[in-house]
Structure formats: C-alpha cells, structure tokens
Amino acid sequence: MANPQAPQDKHDDSDATSPERKEAPAPADTIPDGGLIAWLQVVGSFFLFFNSWGIVNTFGVFQTYYASKLLRDQTPSNISWIGSIQAFLLLIIGVATGPVYDAGYFRTLVLIGTFLTVFGMMMTSISNTYWQVILAQALCVGLGSGCLFIPSVAIVSTYFTTKKSFATGIAASGSGVIYPIIFHQLEPQIGFGWATRILAFIMMATLGIALCVMKVRIKPEQKRELLQLSAFKELPYTLFTLGEFLGFMGLYIPFFYIQSYAIEAPSTPIDENLAFYLLVILNAASIFGRVIPNFLADKTGPLNMLIPCAAISSLLAFCWIAIDRKAGLIVFCIFYGFFSGTFVSLPPTTVVSLSPSLGVVGTRMGMSFAFAGLGLLVGTPVAGAILGSGTNFVGVQAFCGAIVAVATVAVLVARFAKVGMNFQAKA
C-alpha cells in the first residue's frame, strides 16, 4: 500500500507512465477509520452500488413486464438471459476494472460507467424487440455497471479498519428497492418508455453525487497484473471463489422468479400488485442483511458470518417449495432477502482478509467476482429451462436450495483452510 501522502485521484492519468517503485505499506493508524471524508466515501459508494447491483436487483420487475407485454413471445429462460448477461458483465468486467482501479483510474471508471448505464437505459426505453433489449439493457447497462462495481466496494476498505465490514455493508445496502417501485407506479401511467427514461435520469443524478464526493486516499505505486493467477495457489482464496461461483448460481433465482411464482403457482391466487411488492420486500430485507451481519462481521470475521447466513439461505430455498400462501411468501421474502444479502456485502471484505496487501485487492476482487458472474450468467437461465413453459416451480426451488448448500460447504472448507478447526478464531 502506498504512503497516505501519495497523490490522490485528481489527475487519473498523471502516474500512468511513472517508474515503478517498491510499494511500502502504510501504518494502520494512518487509516482514518471514520470522519467526514471517510463517511462521504460510504455515501458515494452507496450510490455506485445503487446503480450497479441495485439495477440487477431490479430486473425481476422487468422480467415480469417483458413476459406479459413487451416480449411475451419469448420463453422465461430467454427473458432471464437479459438479466443474467447484465449481472454477468457487472462482475466479469471486474477482471479488467480491478487492475485499472489499482492503477489509479477511479474517476475514469466511474465516468465511463455513468455514461454506459444511463445511455443503456435510454436505449432500453426505445427498444421494441428482444435483441434490442439484449444490446441496450443486458450489454450496455451491464458493461457500465461493471465499471461502477469494483470502485464501489474497493475504495471504502482504504478508509476503515475496525469498521471496515460495517462501512462496506452500508455502501452495499444500495439495493433495488426504489427503482422497482418507481417503474411499477409510472409504467401504467406514462408507459414503458418514459418510466425507463426517468430511471435513467435518477441514475445520472445519483452517480453525479458519487463523482462529487468520492476521492481515492491511496493507490499503489507500481502497476498491477490484470490477473494474479498465483492467488489460486492459496487454498482459502480458491475455495472461497468456488463458493462465490456456486452461491451466485442459486441465490438470485428468487429475485428473478418470485413475482412469476406468486402469480402463477400458489393455490391461493395473489394479485399482481402484491406479487410485485414481494420483490420490493426481498430487496428491502436485503438492505438489513447487508448492514447488520457486516457490523457483526467486524467482530467475528466475514467468513464466520457468511457461512451461517448462506446455510440459512439454502434452507429457506427448500422451505420455499412448501409455501403457497400470501403470509408465507411475505415471511419467506423477508428472511431470504435478509440472509442472502450477505452474499453481496461480505465477499469484498472477505477478499481483503484473504489478500496479502491492499495493493492487490482490486485484482483479486475482480477475479473472484468474475467467477461469481459466471454463476449468475448460467444460474437463472438454467432455472428458467427447468421451469419451461409450465407453472411447477419445485424443480427451480430445489435447484436453488441445493446449489446454495454446496456453496456453503465450499465457503466452510475455505474457513477451515484459513484458520483450521479453531471455531473461536476470527476469520
């Protein structure tokens, strides 16, 4: 880690050609761990997260709209590819944006990400065919979100020590609660086009706030590798990355399909308005699931907190099979949203804890999330293929529970590989 007095992110390109120097770690007591500037980074990161993962979490409302109106000639599996590609790009682009962030190009990444996400949503608003939506919402918004995501989680860790997980959890709580409500309320009144354009304007305004308040505190003084393959020689990191791949394969299935399930499957009919708010409840509960466990993780360690939360998420997915009443679905969404939220908020601090220095965090985080992206890419379309054109969701629910259970085992073994069988060790 570079000395705290190193030049900050005022001129992204200023050090691009400077000679490489040996990186010297900064003492821990120079990290602010609070104060106005540090918490402003959390605010900025919140808005970056709001417009990257928040947009991914919003896709459930688009899935339902496309299936019933704009793209009703497409299968659920085909439609889910839009959200899966978007989420995949958000994570896989981290392989490139991690080293770019490490090299000091934070502001450049956010500017590019802002343009692509806003432009992509604008183009989505005028799309009429499946492939137009793929190009605009899946590819353009996905690429833009990928430019925003790594900066949203990497910068906070350089401002905090004892409050690192808690601060990251607050930043990661910028989820898909607001956007689905806005779209759901506006679309019947002003149409799909203008409802989507209003989302784009909100994205532009909130990302502008992030650009104004965020500032890189330190940056490495030497160039970083695009990939650090030597990281996979470390068993804890490798097993954790495997757990992310498997976890993201299953965890987002309820976020994509809960509305369709509520409308089509239960023995007691549920009106479309309540079915829509199930997605909002999932996302709202995930806010608390990203903050409260992260607060506790500062004391217990991120792996120790992630393991039980992932196990409970798996159990809840299996319980989903037996739920077909309104009250049961609401309770399921509250608990599943809470416990599954940790799989988004805790991995960044987990990667930090599994890295030898802050200087390689961006690269390692990018690689780890790339595998998570692969899981997201295939998970929900596989669920759609299992569902087919029917209304029997048992196979989808069982697939979700089983794959998350295997992910839990992988993360558990990663924890043992790091600290052994010492159950009281912070990990």
TrEMBL record:
- MF GO annotations: transmembrane transporter activity
What is the protein name given in its UniProt record?
Major facilitator superfamily (MFS) profile domain-containing protein
Please name the source species: Heterodermia speciosa
Keywords annotated in UniProt: Membrane, Transmembrane, Transmembrane helix
Domain Major facilitator superfamily (MFS) profile, chain residue ranges per copy: 37-419
Q: Which domain of life is it from?
A: Eukaryota
The terms describing its cellular component in GO are: membrane
Family according to the record: Belongs to the major facilitator superfamily. Monocarboxylate porter (TC 2.A.1.13) family.
Task: From the UniProt record, list the coiled-coil ranges.
Answer: none
What's its membrane topology? Multi-pass membrane protein
Q: Does the keyword Transmembrane apply?
A: yes
Compartment(s) where it occurs, according to its Swiss-Prot or TrEMBL record: Membrane
Q: Which InterPro entries match?
A: MFS, MFS_dom, MFS_trans_sf, Proton-linked_MCT
TM ranges: 46-67, 79-101, 108-127, 133-154, 166-186, 192-214, 235-255, 275-293, 305-323, 329-354, 366-387, 393-417
Q: Where is this region: Disordered?
A: 1-29
Residue spans of biased composition, Basic and acidic residues class: 8-24
